[in-house]
Amino acid sequence: xxxGTRLAAVDLGSNSFRLEIGLLDHGLVRRxxxxxxxxxxxxxxxxxxxxxxxxxxxxxxCLARFAERLAGFKKPQVRVVxxxxxxxxxxxxxxxxxxxxxxxxxxxxxxxxxxxxxxxLGVAHLLPHSQERRLVIDxxxxxxxxxxxQHLQAQTLESWRxxxxxxxxxxxxDGHLTAQAFEMAEVAAKAVLxxxxxxxxxxxxxxxxxSSGTVNAVADALQAAGWPGGVxxxxxxxxxxxMLLQAQHIDRIRIDGLKEDRRAVIGGGVSVxxxxxxxxxxxxxxxAEGALRHGVLYDLLDRQDENTDLRTRTVERLMSKFNxxxxxxxxxxxxxxxxxxxxxPDSDLPRLTRKLEWAAQLHEIGSHISHQEYHKHGAYxxxxxxxxxFSLEELHRLSQLVLGxxxxxxxxxxxxxxxxxxxxxxxxxxAVILAHAHRDPKLEGLRLQEAPSGLQLVLPPGWARAFPQxxxxxxxxALAWQKTPWPLQMIEA
Length: 493
Description:
Elements: E1 6-12, E2 16-25, E3 28-38, H1 53-69, E4 78-82, H2 84-88, H3 92-103, E5 108-109, H4 112-125, E6 133-139, E7 144-150, E8 153-160, H5 164-171, H6 179-193, H7 197-200, E9 207-211, H8 213-224, E10 232-233, H9 234-247, H10 266-280, E11 284-288, H11 292-303, H12 310-321, H13 326-340, H14 349-361, H15 374-384, H16 392-404, H17 419-434, E12 447-451, E13 454-459, H18 463-466, H19 468-481, E14 488-492
Parallel strand pairs: 1-4, 4-5, 6-9, 9-11, 13-14
Antiparallel strand pairs: 1-2, 2-3, 6-7, 7-8, 10-11, 12-13
Helix pairs in contact: 1-3, 4-11, 5-10, 6-10, 8-10, 9-10, 13-14, 13-17, 14-16, 14-17, 15-16, 17-19
């Protein structure tokens, strides 16, 4: 991307939605606009993990206002990520379909460890260059992330379902701030988070940083009360707890620097923060300027180049871990990309081709478990893998391409209405057939084109006689596609 390009990141958090807009300037993204709205979607999840209509409406209303600021942005300039609440919500698709229409951009629901990676990326980019080993903590509305890293590289990533909204709802449901409630909340947080002790012990890091939400709210309140700025200590946390206990109820909190939108969740947030201080023996925690949204912006830059796109390295790591036949994966990948590129011109074609390449490289990943029905094993692996850089939806689409690359097409019926996916799937299935003998297929003269009756694979003269086995498999494939809305014909030029 060129200097002067505008970029935008939207963070759909459990407590707040945030929009960060910046200008690219020699590899740095300099803020030009920032919006934050307290939506509290996390508080709208019921016992069945369904978002209430009110919670969804609050989100849609906020996104409508964000959409006004994003007018004129192109798709490669914007990334929208959603975190724990939408990871949990069983009816998230109902929210997301309308949210995408309102906002005008895709929305990626990201896994917890991917959220942690992006948080660290945002924090590290806004810190001075240093050799220090960093611990980064982010207490969100419904999850807490911890990361160990150095420079721009996150090394250990974890995410737990502990947050300021959930803990406030559970241990301070009526707003009363009692010593017993704080003790119960801290003990419960420690019970969940104590598994962090081995990996995040104090000898594993030099400096502790806190990102966003709870940490910034606490830091602002402490500084306004006269405590040293830029640091949270155990002593200052003890003082803040005493102030909350004296208030007795969130409606009676009188602490300068504590914003109104934080009152309802301060009890849960402080409880979790105190639990982390105790578990990890933290003496001082420094509030960081960087946050998830900043990490999303810098990751957006990395995604523009295949050489810096973390997803490419993740695919390579998975190939290595599951002993994929690299030569065969490359054969299938080249053939699949060759066929997909013959689609009508589309500005999105480079992105779609890259994703098809990943599916081709991973199509035999399940063979490490069993060759029988390996496509099903492969789909399961991808749906459940830790895959840095990928959103949950991206991984699922990859898993479905792997699932559908062989066997009957009936199992892919839910995807028949997605023309982009079906074109990718067809290219992958044909590529697997063309490379079935584990030799480089002869692609010269092959054309995959649209026809009035569906799709046509055009074969050069003499191709069928030269490759009779491949022709037999292609003919069977054409029969399989006759039972779909995408009938396929074989013709010789």
